[in-house]
Amino acid sequence: MPSSFCVFKYFFEHRYRHYQRAGDCDLSWISKIQVNQPAVLRRAEQIQARRMVKKEWQAAWLLKAVTFIDLTTLSGDDTSSNVQRLCYKAKYPIREDLLKALNVHDKGLTTAAVCVYPARVCDAVKALKAAGSTIPVASVATGFPAGQTHLKTRLEEIRLAVEDGATEIDVVINRTLVLTGQWEALYDEIRQFRKACGEAHLKTILATGELGSLTNVYKASMIAMMAGSDFIKTSTGKETVNATFPVAIVMLRAIRDFFWKTGNKIGFKPAGGIRSAKDSLAWLSLIKEELGDEWLTPELFRIGASTLLSDIERQIYHHVTGRYAAYHDLPMS
Amino acid sequence: MAATHAQRSTREIFTTLEYGPVPESHACALAWLDTQDRHLGHYVNGKWLKPEHRNSVPCRDPITGENLASCPQAQAEDVAAAVEAARTAWENWSGLPGASRAQYLTRLAKMIQKHQRLLWTLESLVTGRAVREVRDRDIPLAQQLLQWHAVQAYTQEETLAGWEPMGVIGLILSPTFSFLEMMWRICPALAVGCTVVVLVPPGSPTPLLLAQLAGELGSFPGILNVINGPASLGPILASQPGVQKVTFCGAVEEGRVLRRTLAGQGAELGLALGAESLLVLTEAADVDSAVEGVVDAAWSDRSAGGLRLLIQESVWDETMRRLQERMARLRGGRGLDGAVDMGARGAAAHDLAQRYVREAQSQGAQVPWPVVVASPFRTAKEALAVANGTPRGGSASVWSERLGQALELGYGLRVGTVWINAHGLRHPEVPTGGCKESGSSWHGGPDGLYEYLRPSGTPARLPSLSENLNYDTFGLAVPLTLPSGPEIGPSPAAPYGLFIGGRFQAPGARSSRCIQDSKGNLQAYVAEGGAKDIRGAVEAAHQAAPGWVSQPPGARASLLWALASALERRESAFTSALERHGVELKTAKVEVELSARRLRAWGARAQAQGHLLQVAELRGPVLRLREPLGVLAIVCPDEWPLLAFASLLAAALAHGNAVVLVPSGVCPIPALEVCQDMATLLPAGLVNVVTGDRDHLTRCLALHQDVQALWYFGSAQGSQFVEWASAGNLKPVWVNRGRPRAWDQEAQGAGPELGLRAARTKALWLPMGD
Known about the structure:
The structure holds two protein chains of two kinds.
Chain A: H1 3-20, H2 28-31, H3 37-50, H4 55-68, E1 69-72, H5 80-91, H6 96-101, E2 113-116, H7 121-130, E3 137-141, H8 151-164, E4 168-172, H9 175-179, H10 183-197, E5 201-205, H11 214-226, E6 231-233, H12 245-262, E7 267-269, H13 277-290, E8 303-305, H14 308-321
Helix pairs in contact in A: 3-12, 4-13, 4-14, 5-7, 8-10, 10-11, 11-12, 12-13
Chain B: H1 2-16, H2 27-35, E1 42-44, E2 47-49, E3 56-60, E4 67-72, H3 76-93, H4 98-114, H5 116-127, H6 131-154, H7 156-159, E5 163-165, E6 168-173, H8 179-192, E7 195-200, H9 205-215, E8 224-228, H10 234-238, E9 243-250, H11 252-261, E10 268-273, E11 277-281, H12 287-298, E12 307-312, H13 316-328, H14 344-362, E13 372-377, H15 380-388, E14 395-399, H16 403-412, E15 417-420, H17 445-450, E16 453-455, E17 498-500, E18 503-505, E19 512-516, E20 522-527, H18 531-550, H19 553-569, H20 571-579, H21 585-605, E21 611-614, E22 621-628, E23 631-635, H22 643-654, E24 658-662, H23 669-681, E25 687-689, H24 694-703, E26 709-712, H25 716-725, E27 733-735, H26 746-750, H27 752-758, E28 759-765
Parallel strand pairs in B: 6-7, 6-9, 7-8, 9-10, 11-12, 11-14, 12-13, 14-15, 15-28, 23-24, 23-26, 24-25, 26-27
Antiparallel strand pairs in B: 1-2, 3-4, 5-16, 17-18, 19-20, 21-22, 22-28
């Protein structure tokens, strides 16, 4: 399939998705749902042990994993210099000679996006433009990470980030609404986020570590998708429990159920705690098992991570050279 | 050149993102086979035994068909050599303090740990099972088994006081069982002090390797012997002198045949038959998780047999859609590949299933899967009726998020193991077994230990085989009774009739038999019961059974106590009835007093049954329930006509069974006297007493398919017949083989053995978490 067609298809689908999904909040989709935690835990344990990839397969999968990464920096001490460095790393995630050795240097390998705080969006946009890159800039918003600010300021935050050039917005949901069972109110809030995003992609962070139960995770996922999210995301990376397999299994099942009900494919983004190359392989196989190959594209799958990339580069280095890299062999991000 | 090829592949895979092979090297398994020159033998008495001139069977890689090694088929003399080794070893092993056996088992666990790679590659290579399954599940479980049983051995003198090891145990494994099934059974046997001879089908080297590992620990050669041979050697193994018990794991029909063959043989028989499982999926289930349960139960390599799937009608379509979606993602392949869901066995079942599905769909018929049979149900009650309406009683899982419903189903299913919202969990501490045709042999937990123990002081079992016993005619004809003089019965006269359904009824044959007193005078006529009366009695018992089961233990206890009081009130009537049979007054008084005490004692014990197990990996409890057998038939001994009757009856009732009894043949009057009291005290039909020709009544009961268990205390021939006939519905039987029992002694008359036999265990797994 020619790549231009892919791009067209991508835009087409995404333009229309918002309108298609402007459906009502159908609470019957979540009222009967049951999630059995011990059973999900067992499945999570199994799935990690069942699929391994080795050698060339491992290298290829790791390279693919790079293209799913939302390269992230979300620190209080972020300044334009380290954001700039991050953007450079996003554009050149793996050393050129290693890519050449694997004969994938012409694939235009970059990370999927760069993810920063709203105040750093301008820096990131500028840095990427300077590097001649079209990598999208994602901004967290809506009172990240706790979401405990007024709705008005949360919405304003989205608008400002979009104005600054962010094309993807990672919003956090209001956990209070989940824990008190106000599903319709949650739907309304996310609808407003959706509107405030305009053309930007909406990634909804469920902060699953704070939702209390897997059944709540499923319900929140469903509400977020009904309200028009393009992605649902596990966590902010700031909670005590971040992206775990059991939570992911529940969210992926919700995504599949939503697809079966509406025909719309919603993306999935685990974030927080994914640090090793081996972890990333397990996540790829999880998506492949639970949703299938169609979901293994940057349009539908992202990994939010900051240190993962260097470990992947380290593994690629080892695959190509047969040696373990020294700290100074690979550029820092 | 190889390098460029690799580079191209990486580029391709980058686009396709496919899975690649993850081969597990099996070099060490081959190297081990090489140490035996690819010619395996038997492992007997700590040495390899490689007799000449035996037919050999190839051991093949099930996927490539490659010939890996050859295995000799054992002959009778090899079996004899193995049993001889086990018998010699037993003398030393059984006498050791539990702590020494515990140490040995711990060392064996360590030995397995040290050689685990060899074990898992060998097992996966020869069985074709997914290596992940063997490596991540079987091997750790094998070690856990040894460790848990080591602890049991260590505390044996304290916790199992009053019990002693049986002796040499024969274990027969069918080809579909993995080496883990062997571990489940040899661990308790070795722990309590038995020694084992395992008969494995040729071409399964893993048990041999385990025996070698055990043998190389040095100190006790001969406690674990493994020989290769067909299951048809089973009777030969069972008839070797010294073999006290044979446990058979295999297909139901094979088990039936073995049960018939071994009737009257020296060894006791334990059967663990079939591996079919049941899965009940309700509308309150987490359907996705339940589907994972189905996949695990049916197509993973941990599944041992077929699966029956009951799905609530309202979620049928949804379940089927998810199941098909999930099945499409299963990966089959070589067992030694680290990234497959199914090795050879699972894949074969899966392919077969898919082929049948396609065929069925093209013919527009409902899908008759050979390995997974799915059928819808409407309500939980209907699910229970459908699930219990089969002769199998192995394991089942219930999928429901509603606690009340899940427990109702869990308690109601007549199976050995129930998992709530899980399937196939196992742990050394939890007993696993079955009921009905799945056999009543147990492994794991306390029940697994009792399989290889007997009450201290029980004499060794010897064959009581009567070659000329004709099973077709035994007890078929009833001798005729003619009037033989005036009745000189007690006053008032004992009630006449059969005690069925709570009242005295005339026998179907409308004839009577005479009972003589010790002086040879005609004491009384009692009713001559027959096949129709047995049928009626069993029916009455079945009607009364559900009501009795639902009685709380306290209520059972108070009824038994009331019966004891009634007995004491009418002490004089009982003593005089006993005196007429030549029992001294003093002894008669003791017998009546003891009988009342037995009723009270079992009433009290009814309160304390079952317990809770806490399994390490599982959050949540496992309940070890003791459930009644159902309708229990008891043929009482001739001796101690009142005491034996009361002892057996009390134990049976306390555990919630409904009973059909045949009282003492020579002196049935005291039992009939008790019936008078039972008529007013107990629910109708709970206890039924049928007098008549004992052989004839035994025949009727033993051949009755709806009698769920049978205890027989009578002749050696009768015992043999009972064992033979029990093959019909594979009811658990307890026979005395013509040996008298000291009913007045606490151990034999009211010991824990009665309690063990009067109920069956059920393990109810309750994982928790939200």
